[in-house]
Amino acid sequence: MKRSMKPKISGKNLYKIFGNDPSMALSLLSSGKSKDQIYETTGQAVGVHDVTFTVVEGEIFVVMGLSGSGKSTLVRMINGLIKPSAGEILIDGMDVANCSEEDLRNIRREKVAMVFQHFALFPHKTVAENVAFGLKIRGVKQAERRERAQAALEQVGLGARADSYPDELSGGMQQRVGLARGLASEPEILLMDEPFSALDPLIRSDMQQELLELQRSLRKTIVFITHDLNEALTLGNTIAIMRNGAIVQTGSAEEIVGSPADDYVSAFTRDIDRSLVFKADSIARAPGTIDIGSNDLSSAIARMEQVGADAVHVLDGDRLAGVITYQAANAAFRDGMTLESVVSHDFPTASPQARLFDLYPLAGAGLPIALTDETGRLTGVVRPQDVFRQLAGERE
């Protein structure tokens, strides 16, 4: 399923100055002074510096940066917890930086929920009561609160633990309760501020996969904050990398790792396992094919020479029938054999969304890997040498 390209959240020329005279700091920024120079001169801190971004409906937009980069300030501006010093931030076209208090309350009540790093569960309340707490504050009746809390717990796999208490749950389970609490209000947008960073690595990895599974069915718009690049690459449809309050690069995981914008991003991505980032369609080529019903060995050899390939795939109408290599075709041609007799039906195939990690063993066969869609139709090919070139970080 393709994601919508409709903007859900957007920020334009956002600034946040922490101090008693933001206008002075903004003036110094416009004159080219650095964040450190402004702090030394005025004692004011630049939290966010001229940030512009767009989050499309239904995507996971990950904001990644080290401590002090401005990422948590940015996410708190989205739901109005922090007011920008300058700029606008729109949710469905409404500027939450400059709207009325009533409009802001309605946005928080109807559109946005936040999941924090620390679980902040009430130890004396049951899991279901914790999940339903926000609904209780909003005046939702008890029966409906319980129903919606139970539904949210089912979504995160904790339906059977509704009447347990927080101290009876593991850390991962407690974080799932926090996620269920956000889901219970049925928001359109989830803001997640380093929600998994306090978890053990294995539990953290499990939670990342559970969030991805949940997103496949719920299709929420998620803004996810993290300081961990691997987590960003795992979760993000789009990733924004922040440094010193500014966004230094925005793109997909493949764009961030494959074409880092500067030395700062390059240093982050240097040790990333490229086989887990790049997908087959990122290095796919248009398939060179012949039709078994209208070609012979001579035309098959000519086709391979035309496209500069050691092998081409053979089609039987719309059906992928096999592959033939240049070496086998020439040998068969000399021996007077037919095209059908040398077509190999044992050849590697993969999904266009397969990771290079999954293609690596297939590339060992030396044959082009056929990329096929859900119906089995050939959409592209990946040459073994392109797999190895991408893993090595080489450009053709």
Q: Kindly state the mean pLDDT as a whole number?
A: 90
CATH superfamily of the largest domain: P-loop containing nucleotide triphosphate hydrolases
CATH class of the largest domain: Alpha Beta
Strand order of the largest sheet: 6-7-8-3-9-10
Q: Beta-strand percentage?
A: 15-25%
Low-confidence stretches: none
- How far the N terminus sits from the C terminus, by CA atoms, comes to 32 Å
What's the helical proportion of residues? 25-40%
Number of strands: 16
Tell me the CATH topology of the largest domain: Rossmann fold
CATH architecture term of the largest domain: 3-Layer(aba) Sandwich
Instruction: Provide the number of structural domains.
Output: 2
Structural class: alpha/beta
Task: Give structural notes.
- By secondary structure, this protein is an alpha/beta fold.
- The protein has two domains: 57-71 and 99-275, 3-Layer(aba) Sandwich (Rossmann fold), CATH 3.40.50.300; 281-391, CBS-domain, CATH 3.10.580.10.
- Helices cover 38% and strands 23% of the residues.
- The protein has 16 helices and 16 strands.
- It has helices at 22-30, 35-42, 71-78, 101-110, 127-137, 142-155, 171-184, 201-218, 229-235, 253-258, 263-269, 297-307, 326-334, 339-342, 356-363, 384-391; strands at residues 7-18, 45-56, 60-64, 86-91, 94-95, 112-115, 189-193, 221-226, 238-243, 246-251, 289-291, 311-316, 319-325, 349-350, 369-372, 378-382.
- The strands form four sheets. The protein has a six-stranded mixed sheet with strand order 6-7-8-3-9-10, sandwiched between helices.
- A hairpin with a 2-residue loop joins strand 9 (238-243) and strand 10.
- Helix 6 crosses helix 7 (171-184) and helix 15 crosses helix 16.
